Automatic annotation (TrEMBL):
Pfam families reported in the protein's UniProt record: Usp (PF00582)
Domain of life according to the entry: Bacteria
Family under the similarity heading: Belongs to the universal stress protein A family.
Name of the protein this chain belongs to: Universal stress protein UspA
Amino acid sequence: MSTEDPKNTLDFEVENMNFHRLLVAVDEDDSTSSIRAFNYAVTLAKTYRVPLAIVTILETGDLNIYDSLSPDVLSDHRQEVLDKINQYAAKAKDFGVTDVTPLIGEGKPGNIIVNKIIPDWRPDLLIVGSETTDKNRLFIGSQASYMAQNAACSVIVVRANDM
């Protein structure tokens, strides 16, 4: 190894870099960026033959106070989210990903994914979509910057459309 300042030299060997556990975050409303992030994630998981977890967050803040206090309404909404994430898992398996884990959280998407889902599932790569418009809603795509800055793993942000 050279004794030069490492900031001013490219004196290193290029090494393979692979990820071993992937996590993809998808919106329950199937935003374009979520679908693109999902497509990228399943492609990586299949190509590298690694486990893939698919997470969506039940955004309880989207429910009005009466619905959030109604056990039946909340239970129905949870079931809808569970059905949706299971559909994503089935699509991943149909595509050829052999190890798929569906996950659901509740609350603010970025916070739950960074502070609960990632520590529990321990991925080394998070893949998340990001919409370039409609940032007023609190959906997963609007939380991409927060997750990229705060996640304990590498993060790839997939845009809704190519420029």
